[in-house]
Amino acid sequence: MARQCIGLDIGSSSVKLVQVKLSRKGMSLQNFGIEPLPTAAIIDGTIGDPNAVAEAIRNLAKRIHLRGKDVAFAVSGNSVIIRRLQIPAMEGAALAEQMEWEVRQNVPFARDEVIVDWEVLVERTPEGQMEVVLVAAKREVVEQYMQVVRAAGFNPVVVDTDAFAMQNAIDSVDGLVSGETVAVINVGAHFSTISIVRDGKPVFHRNLSSGGDTFTEAIRHRLAVSQDGAEAYKVGSAAGAGAGSAADVVPQEVHRVLAQVSEQVSAEFQRSIDFYVNDAVDANLARVYLTGGSALVPQLPKAIQDRSGVPVMIFDPFSKMSVDARRFDVEYLRANAPVASVALGLALRAPGDK
Ligand SMILES: Nc1ncnc2c1ncn2[C@@H]1O[C@H](COP(=O)(O)OP(=O)(O)OP(=O)(O)O)[C@@H](O)[C@H]1O
Ligand SMILES: [Mg+2]
After folding, report:
1. Closest ligand (CA of 232)
2. Spatial contact of 54 and 148, defined as CB atoms under 8 Å apart
3. What is the sign of the dihedral through the CA atoms of 335, 341, 343 and 347?
4. For residue 33, which of 244, 334, 333, 326 has the smallest C-alpha distance?
5. Which tens digits make up the pLDDT trace of 163-202?
6. What is the pLDDT of residues 274-285, one digit of tens each?
7. Quick check: is 110 in a domain?
8. 125 located within any domain
9. How far is the CA of 74 from the centre of ligand 2 (A)?
10. DSSP conformational letter for 176
11. Which residue owns the Cα nearest ligand 1 atom 25?
12. Does the structure show a pLDDT above 90 at 219?
């Protein structure tokens, strides 16, 4: 079996590295770490400060004694377009030509500005149609990420998207089974993505501009504190209560703000889900997987569950992995599990994968 890549998730708030080993006995954790990024290092899914990002990757790799060079990374946000298309069933050159036309119809960038990939999901429906997922990423952004990965001393060998990496992670841990439709909501710092996966295949994808920053900003305005102060209140509110714990010093108002923003963000998620559900044939969601660092906002899972009427599970990428408790701080892994999802999905890729 080919050796796995190092999974590198460059998010707007931090860089995450995950390395796993796959064997007949299953998956085992080889390495993991998170390194914060300065504000404006990543701006709207593009790299604002290449030196800062490369330095964060280098520092993190050194700190966790990372071995290996081949990296899988992901692009996300507005520079990535994902569309599921239904077209008349065809193959070979006719299909390639049709897809070129679809790129021009569906991608809001010039053809020579994007890198395009597509995969047939359904060869032929009973109605003689076929279903294809089209992915286009801005070439400039992909190249920018590659340069940063190289500047950090690694070989970028696989390029993926956040959404597909996440889907891969969930599939490897929980198994996305046939006959089931699930929603995957990744709430990061700067934005969120919703993917709907049916029979293990992506059927719908949307980016939303709310994320962890939406909660922090609300606290900042309502309590008139600095951004760092607001962030500390937010993260502190999730800490377990008890004498002397961080949760004790968080004002009640913070919990109210988090609850309100959770409501507002859930309503936004639900509008996207409804958009899909309203014109889908079989749209009963079995569950919602919630991931990304903001899955740790205590009020959010319940708000989404109440709004959608569907069970919400916080995805834990480490749950089925063997973890050597002598090498890793298991508490730290548990506390940061949702943050690591995309990086795990990337760590499952092998060099030479498309
Ligand atoms: N314990 C916690 N409680 C509440 N929020 C948290 C906690 N830990 C992390 N977060 C929030 O999660 C967010 C970071 O999540 P994540 O690492 O998934 O985002 P990112 O990948 O850096 O950003 P993006 O994907 O939006 O570019 C931040 O907004 C952070 O404040
Ligand atoms: Mg992210």
Report:
1. 1
2. yes
3. positive
4. 333
5. 999 999 999 998 888 889 999 999 999 999 999 999 888 8
6. 998 887 766 789
7. yes
8. yes
9. 9
10. -
11. 188
12. yes
Collapsing DSSP states into helix, strand and coil, what is residue 347?
A: helix
Is the backbone of residue 270 left (phi > 0), alpha (psi -120 to 50) or beta?
A: alpha
Q: Find the ligand nearest to 293 CA.
A: 1
| Number of compact structural domains in the chain | 1
| Residues facing residue 160 across a β-bridge | 74
DSSP state of 322: B
Ligand 1 pocket, Cβ-based, cut-off 6 angstroms: 11-14, 188-191, 211-213, 231, 234-235, 238, 292-294, 296-297, 339
- Ligand 2 (ion): residues with CB under 5 Å are 11, 188
Contact status, residue 231 vs residue 215, Cβ threshold 8 Å = no
Q: Which ligand is nearest to the CA of 342?
A: 2
Verdict on whether the full-model pTM lies above 0.90:
yes
**What does the alpha-carbon distance between residue 31 and residue 61 come to, in Å, rounded to a whole number?**
10
pLDDT on residue 245:
56
State the average pLDDT over residues 308-320: 96
What residue ranges in the chain does DSSP mark as E strands?
Answer: 6-10, 14-23, 26-36, 42-43, 46-47, 70-75, 80-88, 114-122, 129-138, 155-161, 181-187, 192-198, 201-208, 285-291, 312-314
Q: What is the CATH number of the domain that holds 91?
A: 3.30.1490.300
Task: Let me know if residue 93 belongs to a domain.
Answer: yes
Domain that holds residue 122: 81-135
**Contact, 15 vs 58, CB < 8 A?**
no
Nearest to 153 by CA among 68, 214, 255: 68
**Is residue 123 domain-resident?**
yes
Asked if 174 and 321 count as a contact pair (C-beta separation under 8 A), the reply is: no
Go through 203-219 and write b for each residue having 16 or more CB atoms within 10 A of its CB, e for each that does not.
Answer: bbbbbbebbbbbbbebb
**Residue in 8, 254, 339, 346 to alter for ligand 1 test, most ligand atoms within 8 A of Cβ:** 339
